[in-house]
Amino acid sequence: MILNTPIDMHLHLREGKILKDVIPYTTNQFAAAVIMPNLIPPVDNREKLESYKAEILENSENFTPLMNLFMREYTEEELLDLSEDIFAIKLYPAGITTNSENGVKSIEAIYPVLEIMQELDIPLSVHGETNGFVLDREREFGAVYKKLAIDFPKLKVIMEHVGTADLLSLLDEYENLYATVTLHHLLLTLDDVAGGMLNPHYFCKPIIKTPKDKMEIQKFVKSGHKKIMFGSDSAPHPIKNKLKGAAGVFSAPVILPALAEFFEGDNETFQKFISDNARENFNLNLPERQVELIEEEWIAPYIVGDIKPMWAGKKFRYKVKNAV
Amino acid sequence: MILNTPIDMHLHLREGKILKDVIPYTTNQFAAAVIMPNLIPPVDNREKLESYKAEILENSENFTPLMNLFMREYTEEELLDLSEDIFAIKLYPAGITTNSENGVKSIEAIYPVLEIMQELDIPLSVHGETNGFVLDREREFGAVYKKLAIDFPKLKVIMEHVGTADLLSLLDEYENLYATVTLHHLLLTLDDVAGGMLNPHYFCKPIIKTPKDKMEIQKFVKSGHKKIMFGSDSAPHPIKNKLKGAAGVFSAPVILPALAEFFEGDNETFQKFISDNARENFNLNLPERQVELIEEEWIAPYIVGDIKPMWAGKKFRYKVKNAV
Which parts of A30-158 fold into alpha helices (H)? Predict the structure, then answer.
């Protein structure tokens, strides 16, 4: 099976040693990826943007990093300067996930920035969770998505890593809302985190939810909905940090083999989910690159550097031709 | 404040070093406790029952262990012999929690044992969870509780460590159902486990659920409902096992200080919950012992042996007079 120009619309690469360890597992499967800016300090100025992009390019080949900025109160001048070099600006409600302590405390405070973004056609990428009860946070945030969609009708708003199926029904209500879905929210439930022994390696924010959410997310994705795109939210943490409770699933190594099984026989929808929808929704003009999946048993890596991948050691029926 | 003969209706003491480490934190607060039988191998014969009880007595003073047996297909002869020396028989659906791999796979298989228990007036203690989705297991098990209550109308059935408030409404529908409530299901929610960083020390089965469940459980407990009794389900695991995902909260050290704050000013309901309800429901004839709580700042221990207690390091406004 050949996939044309697969794009991971939501990726954490970190920096330094971790980046070097994990990036080959993305670049062998994806022609491009949207790179999240939650470093310490965050990517929120030209200097950091350029040095981070350079680090990614030095460690990859035939790969396009689509850079995101971390939300702050940017001026119009700054964004005019930066807009050609970024894909989107990422909004983290303060303190909700990894390295988001500097996130935004009030949505209204960034309305002037959103005005400028709308004008300059810079998409807004959102980690959509309130500070409510862990299972309700995404559903509660639905009200914020609606408000953003209405208040900025020409701003493209991406609801990232949707784990609560309710949110996906907003896609047809508001023209300017889009969504990414991760591998783990598509294929796992809270049972995988806490149904047997506690498994910190599947703990992430937003937390993976119920079988009903999973089923409905699968239905949306299988429907080939144009506004739903794949975004892994692959988020590597060293095992010692996972054991201290860090949130994030390092899914990068197993993405295409797992999705090939999920879409089994429906290459058309797979191709849309993994690339075409994103390219059309955001007019992405990327160098094309074909990625081949072959039907051959493949075992997911047990460890990558100091990081335990999702489904470590699991057997798959498909293998990426250039498997790491 | 003086409590008369506090009883912990659900306690895991383990054996050997762990038992020696943890038992002082129970015996300084409780006159008696119902001792769970899920050792390896389980407490399911006279020899093990006697040696385990002896181990507990050797390591305690002025303390009555109310021994439970682990459910298996006992004969009438065995139970006639054992009935005077036990409080109840504990039913674990197979594989659902710590050391329950030898549990019961089909409730019908033990109907003959339940007949004998009903006849001999031996209560049935139940870990009520199905093998369904982790958040639904207790609610789904409600059907089993109803069936047991109807099929054995004179068998006293204890719904242990209720974390799903729905189950408590069964108490008024079925005369022979009783319930225990833990400190952590009374005072925590899934947010404490997975709302911030993942906290394995608050991971238990049944898993701690929603704010709504917590609120309703609190309402039931505060109402002084006669059939609701305190059972800590305090379940010590060495930290290294908790980090591997073992289920159980070691709450023993903080129970009375935490409950004193919860019941603040309502000593009558506190006394019922912590002792009187249990003594009346099960005609327990125990040596009376008074336990004094003084209003004085007290800090919960950070560590007990190799075990991290619930609310380690937290300040309380009440202190057990004989605090360890």
Answer: 46-58, 76-82, 111-120, 137-151
